[in-house]
Write a structure and sequence with these properties.
Elements lengths: L3 E3 L4 H11 L2 H13 L5 E3 L1 H11 L10 E5 L7 H14 L5 E5 L3 H9 L9 H5 L10 E4 L5 E4 L5 H4 L2 E3 L7 H11 L1 H4 L4 E3 L7
Parallel strand pairs: 3-4, 7-8
Antiparallel strand pairs: 1-6, 2-3, 2-5, 5-6
Length: 202
C-alpha cells in the first residue's frame, strides 16, 4: 500500500504531477495553499480526480466545481477555524472555488450529517483514506522546492486508469452506488470502468 510519495521519484506520482502541472487552476491553487500554509494541508479529492480523468480522455482540464483543502488542527475544532483558512485562501485567489475543512473536527459533525459515530482522525492523510472511491483517496501538497508530495493510501492505479472502485473504509456500498449514479460520472468519462461494490445485486 502506497502512503507518501514525492513526484520527483517518478513512477505513478510523477505521472500524476505531470497532469496537475498542466492544469493551470490546480497549479495556482497549490501555490496559494502553500502560501497560506494551514497545518498538515493537502489538496484532495474531486478536483484532482477530475483533472486526471479529463486528461485520460484527451480533454483540457475543466474548471473545478470546488477545490477541497483538508488540514489538521486539533487545537481549534470550531467552524471558525475552517472559515479562517478558507478566508485566507479566498483573499489570495478569490476566483477559485475553495472549500477548507479541518479534518481534526470531522468526528464532531459527521454523526449529524451522516447518522453514524466515527472516531477522530489523527492526520489529514488518515482522512483522505476514508473517501468514498479509491480514485478520490489522493492528496497533494506543493513543497518549498516545488516538488509535489503525494498521499495515496491505496496507490494511484485506480486514479490513473479511470477505475471507479468503492472504498469500504467508511461509507456503505449503497452510498457509493447512489453517489456514482447521481454524479453521472459514466456519461462524463465514458472510459471510466465502474466496479460494483462487493455484495451488490447485479
Amino acid at each position: 500500500m502506497l502512503r507518501t510519495l514525492l513526484a520527483s521519484g517518478g513512477g505513478d506520482a510523477g505521472r500524476l504531477a505531470a497532469v496537475l502541472r498542466r492544469a493551470p487552476l490546480l497549479t495556482e491553487a497549490l501555490r496559494v495553499a502553500r502560501g497560506v500554509d494551514a497545518p498538515d494541508w493537502l489538496l484532495n479529492a474531486g478536483a484532482i480526480r477530475d483533472a486526471v480523468w479529463d486528461a485520460a480522455h484527451g480533454r483540457p482540464p475543466a474548471v473545478p466545481r470546488d477545490i477541497d483543502l483538508g488540514f489538521f488542527d486539533p487545537a481549534d475544532l470550531t467552524p471558525g477555524r475552517d472559515a479562517a483558512v478558507e478566508a485566507a485562501l479566498r483573499a489570495a485567489a478569490p476566483h477559485l472555488p475553495w472549500e477548507a475543512k479541518n479534518q481534526a473536527a470531522v468526528h464532531r459533525w459527521y454523526p449529524r450529517v451522516f447518522g453514524a459515530e466515527v472516531p477522530p482522525f489523527r492526520s489529514t492523510a488518515e482522512a483522505v483514506a476514508t473517501f468514498p472511491e479509491t480514485a478520490s483517496c489522493v492528496g497533494v501538497r506543493l513543497l518549498a522546492d516545488d516538488d509535489l508530495l503525494v498521499v495515496a493510501p491505496y496507490g494511484l492505479g485506480d486514479l490513473l486508469a479511470c477505475v471507479c472502485r468503492h472504498n469500504p473504509a467508511r461509507v456503505p456500498p449503497a452510498f457509493y452506488e447512489r453517489r456514482v449514479a447521481e454524479k453521472r460520472w459514466g456519461a462524463r468519462w465514458p472510459r471510466m470502468r465502474y466496479i460494483a461494490p462487493a455484495g451488490a445485486l447485479g
